[in-house]
Request: fold
Amino acid sequence: MHLAHSERVAANLFRMTNSTSPVRVRYAPSPTGIPHIGNIRTALFNWLLARNTDGQFIVRFEDTDRTRYDERSERAIFESLEWLGLEWDEGPDKGGPYAPYIQSERKQTYIDAAERLVNSGHAYYDDTTPEQLHALRERQRAAKQPQRYDGRGRHRSPEEIEESRKAGLPITIRLKVPDHGTVSFEDAVRGKVSFELKEIDDFVILKSDQMPTYHLAHIVDDKAMGITHVIRAEEWISSTPRHLLIHEALGIEPPIYVHASLILSKDRSKLGKRHGATSALEYRDRGYLADAVFNFIALLGWSPGDDTEVMSRDEIVRRFSIDRINDSPAIFDNEKLEWMNGVYIRNMSVDALVAELLPFMERPEAEGGLLDTVSRPIDRHYLTRLIPLVQERLKLLTEGVETLDFFFADNVNPAAEDLPGRKMDAEMTERALNAALELCRTVAPFEPERLEAEYRALAEKIEMKPGQLFSPIRVAITGKSFAPPLFDTMSAIGQDRCIDRIENAILILRSAAVTGA
RNA sequence: GGCCCCGUCGUCCAGCGGUCAGGACACAGCCCUUUCAAGGCUGAGACCGGAGUUCGAUUCUCCGCGGGGCUACCA
Reply:
């Protein structure tokens, strides 16, 4: 109680110094597909502003286009947000004071608003058919004219509309847009943006299926839900004048507009399916940590103002501000994300890393997990012992499998040509392995320090460089030419299995000598 | 085509009239080292072009050029 109070005081103080009052922002995806990283960054920016100002973050489904509706995407939207820890205060699943948060369930509100606009003379019914619209555009294109609706519906009488309605023609409602003048607004990241009204035609606000267009619907909802800031991607700039016009016609104040730049793909085109992983969920499945992705995409189009890059969620929330959002597009650089993921992995506690790694390792072999012959569940204590050996070597969680598989496998089958170290022939390699095997049988205790001391002495005794002796042993025991530190590895694998693997390697080497020569 | 947005190393970001133009990823070299990493040091690498404004432009203005977005009864 006492603590909570002082926290609140601190928050208020911060708000004062930051001169920002609580905002209400929303993430309003349309359930037409899996949210990609750009969508998610928009959600993140909204969430960050809400948390920074102690405001509310709302999720709302914009499903007014029922032809493109995709049921699975609703689940994916929630999952993406949950994975990144962008919890919402109000939304389709949890309700809230302005429920419902699904546009298709608010249909009547939009019809009312549109009809109000007709009655106030700001909008009108239009019975132009899609075919007529198409013909109009064709004509305009042929004449090299801009392709715009010509406002013919403005002149239709109520009787004519009624007739068309009875005849079953599709009726829409269009906004009456003045044919001259300018609209402008103050974008929070770009400053003043202006448009000529003559460039804008009378656009549809209510479709013939009685569903609103995005333009009408989001404005009605944002107003009803008390949204203060609209943070969205740059692609919306050109329709913002339409939104301003609707606000004006409705007699309401527009929100503060914040247009963040697009995230581009490696080839400078819009992020899309063919550019590898693009959905947040795919990053999760590819072994990226939510914290790392969170940190990384926050930095795509925003920066704290200095050179700080690796930041905790709290720090990002604390330092976030709209005026540090970038106005130029960013290219998504996977290499840097990978690096950052590695940083996060290295900074994790062993237990946390074990928890993250387990699901990846326990997946079926066919899906990238350990060999199916390794029994599940995986021995958590054993894995915990191994983590310190590989933690600083991992960049992705998925790499845990290939990095640790030989610890779990019954045996290992290196290729004969991989066994010799640098400047070693088969004979020398076999000599090294024989000596190694003999020593392996007697070392006690089978601990890293002891092993290292004994094997270094052995190298000297058989007149090889330590690296020359160690290389074949490493390959014999791990099946790979690069692996965690050898003696820690041997100790973890255990004396018996080490003996088996070295014996096996010697056999492999001999049989290769026979068949090879 | 029209309208709008954007333009600093390959990439992300800092710079907000005077800086040896800074940091990070990636890259190269060296050090460390039993391999691979991690870490340390060093290096290479950018203000799209042209006019203005100014004592002085990466920074302000304009014009080009380049990139992107929009141009639906999709969002």
Q: What stands out?
A: Confidence is low (pLDDT under 50) at residues 1-19 of chain A. Residues 299 and 309 of chain A are 8 Å apart (CA to CA). The longest helix of chain A spans residues 495-516. The longest strand of chain A covers residues 182-187.
